[in-house]
Specification:
The complex is a heterodimer of chains A (267) and B (386). Chain A is mainly alpha-helical and 267 residues long. Chain A is 81% helix and 0% strand. Chain A has a domain of 172 residues: MetI-like (MetI-like fold), CATH 1.10.3720. Chain B has two domains: 220 residues, Rossmann fold; 151 residues, Nucleic acid-binding proteins (OB fold (Dihydrolipoamide Acetyltransferase, E2P), Beta Barrel), CATH 2.40.50. Chain B is elongated. Classes of the chains: A mainly alpha (267), B alpha+beta (386).
Chain lengths: 267, 386
């Protein structure tokens, strides 16, 4: 018995070490960035020789960066509602509906996930040129929505596929019309999927590079694009600062969404 | 029961692509009655309920409630209450909001909503739980909320789809009593779908036994139990032993060596009879049969079930007869163990005649008309119940 127990403990230790290794591998680059962002010198050398908020001040007082932060923030505010509304309706229809071509449309709705992003970007580049949407906020809004939509559809579909039809039937039998049932019963039941989809859409929009690079321009440089162009000619800790801020924004979005979902569930 | 014609269902059929799930001639539900629809899974009982509720579109026939043909009406315009096996409460609303849902849909004033929610929750003894969320309640409490929610809109009929099946045995018995009490108090017509014969018998004013999309028998619980109309009903409710054979010159039914005295059977005809397990006695193998009926056999298996022993006896002809021996507490009436030779006995009055052969030209015409009506159904090959 004791022997079995020790064997078990060994395996558990090994598993724990393995998990730690994987997490270290995943988090190390991010940790390096965060630590570098507090560097007092112009060098990106790791580890930094001291700690200061010098580069935070520099970034936050730079009008270029501020414009980019505003633009990225604005895009999230546009992209999330757009993709959540379209994605939720699409996912509900695709999982609960019964109509010819359902599978085909489902594949179509998820297809941007399967296509390399640079191909989508190229398509959008040609298309947006024709209609004059290059280097515009609406252009980026549409482009980000296109890239983010499949994530929302996917996330809501998971919730919608496991949807219990009986609460909807109960509401119907109580006299509620189709629309009323959807708004008062179905949507609240789909909330976990919708929130997950919204988080994915926000993070996708915040970090999007490939498509943005082709459809954005001098007046519409999002934060990731500015990082991308900045690292090409000067590598200083301000990149690390921006990355840390962007990462913080993503984490805040996720934590807030998670808390929001949990709290409303527990109430 | 006055007020016949409360719910009238005629020639109702439903199914997909030619497969018929439901094929109902006629069903009339009386106002204020508690009607159970009892049958095995897949017999069409839930489809029938969903047709009445409006969630399944029938392929033919009509449903009339209080004189209005509702067959083509969408489910939200039917004004019926629905209770589900899994409660189907709205998890994001409080108990009070759940109950208020149908009232708010009807745009009732705030004061009236509050009053009727309170009334409905009092009916199910949950007025102290108004502010809780469904997940904070036990299964039985959740089902009571679901009942309150359905009754708050004062439905013409309350439809219950296996509402007790998710509860544990003790709670199920308590809820049975409570459900019946509520029904007696408010007098709402209730249609209760179940596969549990005990539930159906103990709760209902009438029981409709369904099989393969048809109603095999409709009657009071004691009628359905004591005078099953078909082989299916006899076997599904109370798991009767069904014996089939030819009537001997002495007027006894010879079912493969088992002789059954069943009164007015005509010699030479074929007949089907049923005997309830609890109506059969186990005697010593040596005891002579006074009237020549009964059968010899050996005990194959016995099991103690608390209130009774379940015994299987194999006869010489290879048939298995199930016998139920009530426990006496002292153990004096315990059946003998496996391998013991016994004689099976029963009173002629406990033999239920399911079918006298219609091929017999002089067949008994004086029998129970219900049984005559069900002869055709009885010869269906699906007669093998559990």
């Amino acid at each position: 018995m004791a022997k079995v127990l020790r064997y078990d403990r060994g395996i558990r230790l090994l598993g724990g070490l393995l998990a730690c290794g994987v997490f270290l591998f995943l988090l190390a680059p991010l940790a390096v960035l965060v630590i570098s962002s507090f560097s007092p010198t112009t060098s990106m050398a790791f580890p930094p020789s001291g700690a200061s908020l010098r580069w935070y001040g520099e970034v936050l007082s730079s009008p270029d960066w501020l414009v980019s932060f505003q633009l990225s923030g604005l895009l999230v505010l546009y992209v999330v509602p757009t993709t959540v509304v379209i994605g939720t309706l699409a996912a509900y229809g695709l999982t609960q509906g019964d109509f010819p071509g359902r599978k085909l449309i489902q594949a179509l709705a998820l297809s941007p996930l399967m296509v390399p992003e640079i191909i989508t970007a190229l398509g959008l580049l040609y298309y947006f040129h024709g209609v004059g949407l290059i280097n515009t906020i609406p252009g980026l809004w549409l482009a980000h929505s296109l890239v983010a939509l499949p994530f929302v559809v996917r996330a809501v579909m998971v919730s919608a596929a496991g949807l219990d039809p009986t609460p909807e039937r109960a509401a119907t039998s109580l006299g509620a019309s189709r629309l009323r049932v959807f708004l008062t019963v179905t949507l609240p039941l789909l909330r976990p999927g919708i929130i997950a989809g919204a988080v994915l859409a926000a993070v996708t929009s915040l970090g999007e590079v490939a498509v943005s690079a082709l459809v954005a321009g001098a007046n519409t440089t999002t934060v990731p694009l500015r990082i991308f162009s900045a690292v090409q000619f000067q590598l200083d800790p301000s990149m690390a600062v921006v990355s840390t801020l962007l990462m913080t924004a993503s984490v805040v979005v996720m934590v807030v969404a998670d808390r929001f979902a949990r709290i409303s569930e527990a109430l | 029961m006055s007020g016949a014609g409360h719910v009238e269902i005629d020639d109702l059929t439903a199914g997909y692509d030619g497969a018929r799930i439901l094929d109902l001639d006629h069903l009339s539900i009386h106002r204020g009655e508690f009607l159970s629809i009892l049958g095995p899974s897949g017999c069409g009982k839930t489809t029938l309920l969903n047709c009445v509720a409006g969630f399944v579109e029938p392929t033919g026939g009509r449903i009339v409630i209080d004189g209005d043909d509702v067959t083509a009406l969408p489910p939200y315009r039917r004004g019926l209450g629905l209770v589900f096996q899994n409660y189907a409460l709205f998890p994001h609303m409080t108990v009070a909001d759940n109950v208020a849902y149908g009232l708010k849909v009807r745009r009732l004033g705030k004061a009236e909503v509050a009053e009727r929610v309170g009334e409905a929750l009092r009916l199910v003894n949950l007025e102290d739980f108004a502010g809780r969320r469904p997940r904070q309640l036990s299964g039985g409490q959740q089902q009571r909320v679901a009942i309150a929610r359905a009754l708050a809109i004062r439905p013409a009929v309350l439809l219950l789809d296996e509402p007790l099946s998710n509860l544990d045995a003790k709670l199920r018995r308590e809820m049975r009593v409570e459900l019946r009490t509520i029904q007696r108090r408010i007098g709402t017509t209730m249609v209760f779908v179940t596969h549990d014969q005990e539930e159906a018998l103990s709760l209902s004013d009438r029981v409709a036994v369904m099989n393969a999309g048809r109603i095999e028998q409709l009657g009071t619980p004691d009628e359905v139990y004591r005078r099953p109309a078909t082989r299916f009903v006899a076997q599904f409710i109370g798991a009767a032993n069904v014996l089939e054979g030819t009537v001997t010159a002495a007027g006894l039914l010879d079912a493969g060596g088992i002789l059954v005295g069943a009164g007015t059977l005509r010699p030479g005809s074929r007949a089907v009879v049923a005997i309830r397990p609890e109506r059969i006695r186990l005697d010593d193998a040596a005891a002579p049969a006074a009237d020549g009926t009964g059968a010899g056999g050996t005990v194959g298996y016995r099991a103690f079930a608390g209130d009774a022993w379940h015994v299987e006896v194999h006869t010489a002809s290879g048939r298995t007869i199930t016998v139920q021996v009530a426990d006496t507490g002292g153990g004096v009436a315990d059946p003998p163990g496996a391998g013991t030779a016994v004689t099976l006995r029963w009173d002629p009055s406990d033999v239920i005649i399911l079918d006298r052969d219609a091929r017999d030209p002089d067949g008994d015409r004086g029998g129970d008309p219900a049984q005559a009506a069900h002869r055709a159904a009885d010869r269906d090959p699906d007669g093998g119940g559990p």
